[in-house]
């Protein structure tokens, strides 16, 4: 019987708080059970296992992140939208590193298919990129370029990986400008053509 006061939503919200405090790897069923003063077994009425909890956490924080990005890019197009998108992404990643780490896990496809958060993320991201006149398969390639650039930069910045005296913000601005140039002059594939 589920313990009074516990719910899946409460557990996932608490997991997000725990990620902020202890890092994503600190999000465990035992740590969450201690937070609620219950035994680990009490959580299994609400989540199947640790992977289920972490997937739900990833969806929650992915929704938080894309909501911030959507507000930032509203009414913008082209370079302005890219700058706003990139800035909101970086701000979230650096402000909430534990939560942000959850967005990098592989999502169970059965949960991903029904996720409004992932649909919204695709809509906002692909919508911004369509402003550059991109269509598939170039859209997918461009999304991968943006994600790997943003994630790599944020991970290095958060970990203190930039040791040169050059201002990190100025380098970020240059990186986003370079992405704008790449998107503007994208090497388009023929409709639906896949590389051999």
Describe it.
The protein is mainly α. It has nine helices and no strands. The N and C termini lie far apart (55 Å). Helix 1 crosses helix 3, helix 4 packs across helix 9 and helix 7 crosses helix 8. The longest helix has 24 residues. The model has no long low-confidence stretch (mean pLDDT 92).
Tally the helices: what do you get?
Answer: 9
Any idea what the shape is?
A: globular
Alpha-carbon distance between the two ends = 55 Å
Give the C-alpha Rg. Answer: 19 Å
User: What percentage of the residues does DSSP assign to strands (E)?
Assistant: under 5%
* Secondary structure tally: strands: 0
Give the integer mean of the pLDDT values: 92
Residues in helices, as a percent range? 55-70%
What is the structural class? Answer: mainly alpha
Give the uncertain stretches in residue-range form.
none
**Major sheet size, sense and barrel closure:** none
Query: Would you list the SSEs in sequence order as H and E?
Result: HHHHHHHHH
Helices, strands, pairings?
Layout: H1 8-22, H2 29-36, H3 50-73, H4 78-95, H5 97-102, H6 109-112, H7 116-130, H8 138-158, H9 168-184
Helix pairs in contact: 1-3, 3-4, 3-7, 4-8, 4-9, 7-8, 8-9
């Amino acid at each position: 019987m589920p313990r009074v006061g516990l719910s899946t939503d409460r557990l996932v919200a608490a997991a997000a708080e725990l990620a902020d405090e202890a890092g994503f790897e600190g999000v465990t069923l035992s740590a969450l059970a201690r937070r609620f003063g219950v035994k680990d077994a009490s959580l299994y009425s609400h989540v199947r296992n640790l992977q289920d909890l972490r997937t739900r956490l990833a969806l929650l924080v992915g929704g938080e992140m894309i909501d911030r990005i959507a507000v930032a890019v509203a009414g913008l197009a082209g370079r302005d939208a890219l700058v706003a998108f990139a800035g909101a992404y970086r701000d979230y990643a650096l402000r909430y590193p534990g939560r942000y780490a959850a967005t990098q896990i592989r999502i169970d496809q059965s949960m991903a298919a029904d996720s409004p958060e992932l649909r919204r993320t695709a809509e906002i991201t692909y919508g911004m990129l369509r402003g550059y006149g991109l269509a598939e398969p170039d859209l997918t390639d461009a999304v991968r370029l943006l994600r790997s650039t943003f994630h790599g930069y944020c991970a290095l910045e958060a970990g203190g990986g930039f040791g040169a005296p050059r201002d990190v913000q100025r380098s970020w601005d240059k990186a986003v400008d370079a992405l704008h140039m790449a998107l503007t002059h994208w090497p388009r594939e023929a409709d639906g053509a896949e590389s051999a």
